[in-house]
Amino acid sequence: MENWATEKNICNKLTLHKTYSLYEEAIIIMTETKPLADSAKNYFRVSGVISFCFLFVVSVVASVIFFLSSWTVPSVWFVLIWFVAILILAVWMIGIYPAKKFEKTRWRFDEQGLFIYQGIWWKVQYAVPRSRVQHIDVTQGPIQRSFNIAQLILHTAGTINASVSLTGLSHEKAVEIRDELLFQEKHDAV
Amino acid sequence: MENEKRLHPLSWLFIIIEIVKQFFFPLIFALFAGGSDNYQLVTLIFIVPGVVFAIIQYWVYRYSLKEHEIVIREGVFVKNVRHVKYERIQNVNLSRNPLHRLFNVAQLELESASGGKPEAVMRVISLPAVEEIRQKVLSAKAAVQDSDSKDDLEKPSVNEDTERSILSLPLSELIKAGVISNKGMLVVAAVFGVAGQTGSLERFFDTMESRMNVWFDSVQIDFNNPVSIVVLSILGIVSFIILIRILSIAFMVVTYYGFELKKANDKLLAQYGLVTHFNATVPEQRIQLVSVEENMLHRYFARSAVRIATAGGNANQGGKSLKWIAPIINSDQLNKFVGAIQPDISTEVDSWQKVEFSGWKRITRVYIILLSIIVALLSIKIGWHSLWFITLSIFIVVYAQKTVASMRYGFSTNALFYESGWLVKRRTFVPISKIQSIELKQTPFDRRVGMASLLVDIAGLDLGRHSISIRFLKKSTANELMSKLYTNVSNTVYRWK
């Protein structure tokens, strides 16, 4: 019971404001959480371009094989619809999605642990307390390296969320968080 | 190396049996399905090298009991040396089928918290050797606990005379459990699986059809008449339910015959089984979740069933660890029982909180859409009669309202409780210190109505079983709950032992 009386975070602020609104929630999120590294936006965009190119090539190859094998010429309508669909996909995957993803991903690392906000349509929040972190990975792919972006993965003893990952931190920040968690772990063990 | 031990000399026999068991269904298939002789040949090709390999594996398997760890050396081509600290071993499970008992040996499984396969499966090992390992594991654990509390290092760690029985199930209770449970479905599914493979299922239905015509000769069966269809389906359902109950009783009696749960210091020891004897040791600190289940028959007989989740022995990987710690228990004794298996956890919930009742509309919407699709499909087959099924929507509304009304959650001083279900009532609690992480989810449907759901992750969670996953929370309530949990969990320390 004592523990619950001393809680000091969002919870109290929320209970104070009985007239709680979306606006206030936005304020709290803005003041207490941090965005990803600035270069993460560009990184998301580049990976968007890559996955779009992949889909584009696959769909071109599939249609070519289909029309070659049935030995027909695609109708004007088909080409038009295909073209529009590809265009919408390009706008979404390169123009909108990376920016949205960057905007909607926020995190907070404090004495409690790591808190993550993610998701555009399916919104998810993860809270991983410091004392529950079993081990930590900081990984960097080749494209991530060129943007100085890293992926921080926290492993817990849990089942569904046995590993919680956050992509888009600057490499320095990810290493900083890892080192702090490791430092604390050593002190816990003593 | 000195002090290295081998498995029991008869191990090869049990290894062969294990392999033949694995190929049992293919063998049956080969025998019954007939076909060409190739099947038998193929199974032989698989079995013989398997047996030879297994015997070599036994030949090279060595273990030694060191002061703080057990060292296992195994492997024929790839040598593998595994060090497992006694204190990291979560569960010690023992199983003995009649053959084991004949030779006075057992199969031993040591499970760590990794949640995957057991850390070591010793197949098979003599009983004195089992006792030696068990003593090592249990005393090491006690020693660590003592050094944690630091005040009494010299305290004798194992004190057997404090052992007391907290639950033993006589045959009458097991029969009751069988009547209550739906375990017979498993047996039916297994039988259908085998029968379906061998094609005897079709023959069965063929004979049934011809018999039915004789039995119901006097009854006018007209498959275009909805009344006959209804009467026939009711008859079928009733006989199916009776069959399932009989199978359930058999299942319960065979699995849990002679069930006894004992408590020695802070360890729980369970033994049960008619044909194969199981023997499981679970330190109460390892219990991550306790769930009480009551279906309508449970409530009629004033009984409950209690399930636990432990960190080792992930049920999703088919571990043998104890899951139903009380397959059936008198509901009056429930509080005492939970208090005995989790003495440090308070079960007094301060105040139960309800979820948003308007959630019933969302459940209703989903089911109504499903129902409309079914009605539309059926109308092709049976015409306007399918419209009768629309009356089911009344049941859907009642079901949805009752279901949402039954969902509630609350805190005791050191645990989080969640209860849901109306036909089958389930109440689950997780000690705050056992919570690993918290997740708050909002689907687009949630956002339309300003709701969210909250998930609590623990070690050894049984996927698909009742756990703390609270739907239909108001967004602001969910946020509050999450930060409250986050603060509380952060203030506790997770201990493996």
Shape of chain A: elongated
> What is the tally of beta strands of chain A?
7
Radius of gyration of chain B from CA coordinates? 27 Å
Reading off the top of the CATH hierarchy, the class of the largest domain in chain A is best stated as Mainly Beta
- Report the uncertain regions of chain A: 1-21
Strands ordered across the widest β-sheet of chain A: 1-2-3-4
CATH architecture of the largest domain in chain A: Roll
| Portion in helices of chain A | 55-70%
Gist?
The complex is a heterodimer of chains A (190) and B (497). With 190 residues, chain A is of the alpha+beta class. Chain A has helices at residues 2-5, 10-16, 22-32, 39-70, 76-104, 142-146, 171-189; strands spanning 34-35, 106-109, 113-118, 123-129, 133-139, 149-156, 163-170.
Which helices and strands occur, and which strands form pairs?
The complex is a heterodimer of chains A (190) and B (497).
Chain A: H1 2-5, H2 10-16, H3 22-32, E1 34-35, H4 39-70, H5 76-104, E2 106-109, E3 113-118, E4 123-129, E5 133-139, H6 142-146, E6 149-156, E7 163-170, H7 171-189
Antiparallel strand pairs in A: 1-2, 2-3, 3-4, 5-6, 6-7
Chain B: E1 5-6, H1 11-22, H2 24-32, H3 38-60, E2 62-65, E3 69-74, E4 80-85, E5 91-96, H4 98-103, E6 105-111, E7 120-126, H5 127-149, E8 164-168, H6 171-180, H7 184-198, H8 200-215, H9 226-256, E9 260-264, E10 267-272, E11 277-283, E12 287-294, H10 296-301, E13 303-310, E14 324-330, H11 334-341, E15 353-354, H12 359-382, H13 392-406, E16 408-411, E17 415-420, E18 425-431, E19 437-442, H14 444-448, E20 451-457, E21 469-474, H15 475-490
Antiparallel strand pairs in B: 1-2, 2-3, 3-4, 5-6, 5-11, 6-7, 8-9, 9-10, 10-11, 12-13, 12-18, 13-14, 15-16, 16-17, 17-18, 19-20, 20-21
Structural description of this entry:
- The complex is a heterodimer of chains A (190) and B (497).
- With 190 residues, chain A is α+β, with helices and mostly antiparallel strands.
- Chain A has helices at 2-5, 10-16, 22-32, 39-70, 76-104, 142-146, 171-189, and strands at residues 34-35, 106-109, 113-118, 123-129, 133-139, 149-156, 163-170.
- Chain A starts with a helix and ends with a helix.
- The model of chain A is unreliable at 1-21 (pLDDT under 50).
- Chain B is built from 15 helices and 21 strands.
- In chain B, the strands form four sheets. Chain B has a seven-stranded antiparallel sheet with strand order 7-6-5-11-10-9-8, sandwiched between helices.
- In chain B, a hairpin with a 3-residue loop joins β2 (62-65) and β3 (69-74).
- Chain B folds into four domains: 5-146, PH-domain like (Roll); 179-256, no CATH class; 260-355 and 407-490, no CATH class; 359-403.
- The interface between A and B is large, with 38 and 41 residues.
